[in-house]
Design goal:
- The complex is a heterodimer.
- Chain A is of the alpha/beta class.
- Chain A has four domains: about 140 residues, 3-Layer(aba) Sandwich (Rossmann fold); about 70 residues, no CATH class; about 140 residues, P-loop containing nucleotide triphosphate hydrolases (Rossmann fold, 3-Layer(aba) Sandwich), CATH 3.40.50; about 80 residues, no CATH class.
- Helices cover about 35% and strands about 25% of the residues of chain A.
- By secondary structure, chain B is mainly alpha-helical.
- Chain B has one domain: ABC transporter involved in vitamin B12 uptake, BtuC (Orthogonal Bundle).
- In chain B, about 70% of the residues lie in helices and about 5% in strands.
- Chain B contains 13 helices and four strands.
- A two-stranded antiparallel ribbon of chain B has the order 1-4. In chain B, strands 2-3 form a two-stranded antiparallel sheet.
- In chain B, helix 4 packs antiparallel against helix 10.
- Chain B is globular, with a radius of gyration of 20 Å.
- Classes of the chains: A alpha/beta, B mainly alpha.
- The interface between A and B is medium-sized, with 43 and 26 residues.
Chain lengths: ~500, ~325
């Protein structure tokens, strides 16, 4: 059953003299799931675009292999040509026509007709067949626009299958799915695999890759970092290949003992709809994680501490009340890395240099004049410290990857050596290597006495980074877990409103 | 300077064409007038440049020019006040107007366009009501005071061309503005506020104070400009003095490379933009195109300049994207 049907031979692609992809050798086999993994910018999208006919390779070739094992070269000049030979790409952004019904959307461009009239009955019958194939029990006359995202994804797959796709390429298919929907999608893909469809699966969720892939190609900087067979696939190996270096073990956290309280939040009521008071303490040198569901009030609490939103209650820093505008609090040593870095964090058209030095400027200033030499040293130092890539202070932050953008915002605050560092989703949309660097930088700041309070929806991150975990539910702190005793199950129990005892 | 090559090119082309085909362009009298007008309008444009840098706009500056310009002779001649009182009072008054704009925009969160549009109507109305819509002038008095604007400084080696005195306040103000924007913490923060106000707030930058400051600077410079303008012309009608000056100032700033989205201001660009507009007005006149065409020509040049700028930016962005792809 398992045989190669498509092969790439040293595929490469250059953009304006820059190599985006080079020397890719991939075998796509019927009845197998081939995963393509890599950090942002590793070349995954470029490879997909070449396979689906959007882009032509600048070097190398794609070969189709027939049942006798004879290979002949494929020159795909458009998506339509790729579709003809049975290659279908299911996009990261779904693009079903919202106003069409399911039958119309699935058979778009291949409508059944008789004497020029649409044959709706036969179209509905065929659409229903394909919907059943992807496990959707829906009326073919349902409007696409009325479907939830997870189901639209499946409709896209049904559409690809109906066009006789033998090779199904999925680009980050779970980026907007819940855990249960993801499981269902994976189960459906498993069935398709059994029926002989070749699946190319691109995801940065290693759990999914480990769950479904028969083989995985790891890309790094546009090149093949390695090909792994199912037997040799494990998270550590994939991560090592993706990052290109062994992630050093994380720094051990010192025991805090009787460290004094640095940040004390007492009965703070934020703009959160439930208006319940929240109280917490972060000690000198401690890293506290705020877990909870979306909408639990974590962002509101962090912003209230920073002076960015209306709030009542008292906040103390080193025993003195912390109040006033954010600018006044920053002068007292407060720092906040916001959740939405594009909107609240970055000056995207400006270079890394001015982005990093923004909060530091008054410290280096002499009678209001910017200390340009000091600024240069500061930014160069921060680029090295955070392993910011490319290490060019004149580079516009707009052109950086998510991880490096996040490092830029973090660097802005590390530059002022804050007493309190608040972080909202410190590594969202950040790849493995950058995440490690960011975590290490946060740990290093804590070691110098900084009190760190971070909110994260990523339980793995909370368990990895926090010395102590506070779980928020409905605007208040629902419970506290020590690092040693915390588990994902215990956190979720508290986050969904379960009592502390029940969670244990 | 590199980003101003295009504007400098337009400026030189207009100058050369006018010199070749027009009468009297290169006479000392005409050139002195051009420098004078450029200096006066540049002062207004510098002020609105700060506001544009924060991502705002000030439509009221022409009316502030009118109110102050009318108030100076009105207080000196009609009411017999001492110039030692009048000058500080009108300057403080214009700063207060800016403070009002700034507070309405930052505290009440009203839109700059709306606040200053109301200002435009309000201050001209006050000027006309205050004077009973009567022309105000110095009636040949206060020659010493007026020499701040009408004075001409002899230059060594040049007989006929003497430097208008208004270039001195312009050089001082432009230097201060350039240093402020490129060298000081507050200047950096002002532009940061313009390029992403919310990121600036999250960086601990006192954005409200900076924005308010920009409106104060803008109205103060409009007040100063209004005073110099009235010193220059001697007398004026409250109903038309300073009409459209806000648009000349905004057009000059935009031509000089200030983005209306905020975040980028160039002092050199503003002065060069003002000079280009003034030379254009002058050449329409000298080439005998008829002054009725003036607004149409300025509008067309501005549109062409802005469109060219946008095309260059897109081309640049596309190149960046190609380079960063994959």
């Amino acid at each position: 059953m398992v045989r190669t049907i498509l092969r790439t031979r040293g595929i490469g692609r250059r953009f304006a003299g820059v190599t985006a992809l080079d020397g890719i050798e991939a075998d796509v086999r019927a009845g197998e799931v081939l995963a393509i993994v890599g950090e942002n910018g590793a070349g995954k999208s470029t490879l997909l675009k070449i396979l689906s006919g959007v882009l032509a390779p600048s070097s190398g070739s794609i070969e189709e292999v027939d049942e006798h094992g004879h290979a002949h070269e494929l020159r795909l000049r458009s998506v339509a040509e790729a579709t003809q030979v049975g290659i279908a790409l299911v996009h990261q952004e779904l693009n079903l026509a919202e106003h069409l019904d399911l039958a119309g959307a699935i058979l778009l461009g291949r409508e059944h007709h008789r004497f020029g009239w649409l044959d709706l009955r036969s179209m509905h019958a065929e659409a229903a067949r394909w919907l059943a194939r992807v496990g959707l029990d829906l009326d073919p006359s349902t409007l696409c626009g009325s479907l939830p995202i997870a189901q639209r994804q499946l409709v896209e797959i049904a559409k690809a299958l109906s066009a006789n796709a033998r090779i199904l390429i999925l680009d980050e298919p779970t980026s907007s799915l819940s855990a249960r929907e993801t499981d269902r999608l994976l189960a459906m893909l498993d069935e398709l695999r059994r029926s002989g469809v070749a699946i190319v699966y691109v995801s940065h969720h290693l759990d999914e890759v480990l769950a479904i892939a028969d083989r995985a190609i790891v890309l790094r900087d546009g090149r093949m970092a390695g090909t792994l067979e199912r037997a040799s696939m494990d998270r550590a190996t994939i991560e090592r290949l993706m990052v290109g270096r062994d992630l050093p073990p994380t720094t051990a956290r010192p025991s805090l003992g009787a460290a004094p309280d640095r940040l004390v939040v007492d009965g703070v009521v934020t703009s959160h709809r439930r208006r319940r008071p929240a109280s917490l303490v972060v000690k000198r040198g401690e890293i506290v994680g705020l877990a909870g569901l979306v909408g639990a009030g974590r962002t509101e609490l962090l912003e209230a501490i920073a002076g960015l939103g209306h709030a009542s209650g008292t906040i103390m820093l080193d025993g003195r009340a912390l109040s006033g505008t954010m600018a006044q609090r920053v002068a007292r040593g407060l720092a906040i890395v916001p959740e939405d870095r594009a909107r609240h964090g970055l000056f995207t058209l400006d270079p890394v240099r001015t982005n990093v030095s923004m909060a530091w400027l008054p410290r280096g200033a002499h009678v209001g004049m910017v200390d340009h030499a000091g600024e240069r040293d500061l930014v160069d130092g921060m680029i090295t410290r955070l392993r910011l890539r490319p290490s060019d202070p004149a580079r516009r932050v707009q052109t950086l990857s998510g991880g490096n953008q996040q490092k830029t915002v973090l660097g802005r605050w590390l530059a002022v050596e804050p007493s309190v560092l608040l972080l909202d989703e410190p590594t969202r949309g950040v790849d493995v290597g950058a995440r490690h660097d960011i975590h290490e930088a946060i740990r290093a700041a804590a070691t110098t006495g900084c009190a760190v309070l971070f909110a994260s929806s990523d339980l793995e991150e909370v368990l990895l980074l926090a010395d102590r975990i506070l779980v928020m539910h409905d605007g208040a702190i629902a419970g506290e877990l020590a690092r040693e005793s915390a588990t994902e199950v215990a956190i979720m129990g508290l986050a969904t409103g379960g009592a502390l005892e029940a969670a244990r | 300077m590199r980003k101003h090559w295009g504007l400098l090119g337009i400026f030189l082309v207009v100058c050369i064409v006018t010199a070749l085909y027009g009468k009297n362009f290169l006479t000392a009298y005409n050139l002195m007038n051009l420098v004078q007008r450029t200096a006066l309008f540049s002062i207004l444009a510098l002020g609105v440049g700060f506001v544009i840098g924060t991502g705002g706009i000030d439509l009221s500056l022409g009316s502030v020019v009118c109110l102050v310009g009318i108030a100076v002779p009105w207080l000196l001649i009609e009411h017999g006040w001492s110039p030692w009182a009048v000058v500080p009072i009108v300057l403080a008054g214009s700063a207060l107007i800016g403070l009002g704009h700034g507070l309405l925009i930052t505290r009440l969160r009203l839109q700059p366009f709306l606040v200053t549009l109301c200002g435009l109507l309000l201050y001209r109305g006050i000027a006309r009501w205050m004077t009973g819509d009567q022309s105000q002038g110095f009636q040949g008095e206060f020659a010493e005071l007026r020499s701040i604007a009408v004075g001409r400084i002899p230059l060594p080696g040049l007989e006929a061309f003497r430097l208008p005195a208004t270039t001195i306040p312009l050089i001082v103000l432009a230097t201060v503005a350039a240093i402020f924007l490129t060298r000081t913490v507050w200047g950096r923060w002002l532009l940061a506020t313009g390029s992403n106000e919310s990121a600036a707030r999250y960086s601990g930058i006192p954005t409200a104070r900076l924005v308010t400051g920009a409106y104060v600077a803008c109205s103060l410079l409009a007040g100063l400009g209004g005073m110099l303008f009235i010193f220059d012309v001697g007398s004026a009608q409250p109903s038309d003095f300073g009409n459209f000056y806000e648009l000349y100032a905004i057009a000059a700033a935009v031509l000089g490379g200030c983005s209306l989205r905020g975040g980028s201001v160039s002092v050199v660009g503003i002065v060069l933009g003002t000079a280009t507009l003034q030379v254009l007005r002058n050449s329409i006149n000298l080439l005998g195109l008829g002054s009725q065409l003036e607004f149409a020509v300025i509008g067309a040049v501005l549109l062409a300049g802005v469109a060219a700028d946008e095309l260059v930016r897109r081309w640049h962005a596309a190149r960046l994207e190609r380079r960063g792809a994959g």
